């Protein structure tokens, strides 16, 4: 008898396996390669099923004990904060919690993004090795916490944030949860001419969503290599650099004092004035209105 298929990006599948709603999830955002949810609960058990996509679970608090069966192997897990479970695409899996579920973050990466990043790394025929909650993985915990904060804030950084973290997670899975031979490739550097061109492109596209594939395309690099060399060249990952450019534009508009706060928010590519104000205050310590008022006072 064929096993049930679980695709976390499919609402019907999630409802069938996880009838209780998560505290928050990425379903409201246009994230293509990565699904995220933060979940808490009590009793929990699933039927045996196959994962569609690469599944990651990282435990929060409190301590939990679970019985997990993966690809015919069953073991008892003592889960503490940072404990990671990784289930590769297509791997048979079931779990039964012997204590309360507690709090955890769930993530699912599409098999396409794993295959794409594996190819960029020079890894052919990638096949993941399951990790059954035996060890902590602080790197994945920090990424999951960043995703949780982003979702809770309403995804102010847009799809670029998710695309960047999807590739970071894919790279981590490929390099840590599979022994592979990676071909050595020298990373190309971004020169000043390319940086200037990227700045011009970002500034021209500020009112719109700016994606990682489009940025990488501007300089003829794969998305994986682009993320690495871009941070080397600018000191920031792409999504933070784009946010910095948006906030620079906001400051210039506030100085000119010719546009409303709402018009500035939309022209800078923020979804609404509330999101802009939140990011602006985090960067400058004051709201856009307070910043404008201070400028007016200094000019009297």
From TrEMBL:
Keyword set, alphabetical order: DNA-binding, Transcription, Transcription regulation
UniProt superkingdom: Bacteria
Pfam families noted in UniProt: HTH_18
Domain HTH araC/xylS-type: 196-294
GO molecular function term, any single one: sequence-specific DNA binding
SMART domains, per the entry: HTH_ARAC
Name of this chain's protein: Helix-turn-helix domain
């Amino acid at each position: 008898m064929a096993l049930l298929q679980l695709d976390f990006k499919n609402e019907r599948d999630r409802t069938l396996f996880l009838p209780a709603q998560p505290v928050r999830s990425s379903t409201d955002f246009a994230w293509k390669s990565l699904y995220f949810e933060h979940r808490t609960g009590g009793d929990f058990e699933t039927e045996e099923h196959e994962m569609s996509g690469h599944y990651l679970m990282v435990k929060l608090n409190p301590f939990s004990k679970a019985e997990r069966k993966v690809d015919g192997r069953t073991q008892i897990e003592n889960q503490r904060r940072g404990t990671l479970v990784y289930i590769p695409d297509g791997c048979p899996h079931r779990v039964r919690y012997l204590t309360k579920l507690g709090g955890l973050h769930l993530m699912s990466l599409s098999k396409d993004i794993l295959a794409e990043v594996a190819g960029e790394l020079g890894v052919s025929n990638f096949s993941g090795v399951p990790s059954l909650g035996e060890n902590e993985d602080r790197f994945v915990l920090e990424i999951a916490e960043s995703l949780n904060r982003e979702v809770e804030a309403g995804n102010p950084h847009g799809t670029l944030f998710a695309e960047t973290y999807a590739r970071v997670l894919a790279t981590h899975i490929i390099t840590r949860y599979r022994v592979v031979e990676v071909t050595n490739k020298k990373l190309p550097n971004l020169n000043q001419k390319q940086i200037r061109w990227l700045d011009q492109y970002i500034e021209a596209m500020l009112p719109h969503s700016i994606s990682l594939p489009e940025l990488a395309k501007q300089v003829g690099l794969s998305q994986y290599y682009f993320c690495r060399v871009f941070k080397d060249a600018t000191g920031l990952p792409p999504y933070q650099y784009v946010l910095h450019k948006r906030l620079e534009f906001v400051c210039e508009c506030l100085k000119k004092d010719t546009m409303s706060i709402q018009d500035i928010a939309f022209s800078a590519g923020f979804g609404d004035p509330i999101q802009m104000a939140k990011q602006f205050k985090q960067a400058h310590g004051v709201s856009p209105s307070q910043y404008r008022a201070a400028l007016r006072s200094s000019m009297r």
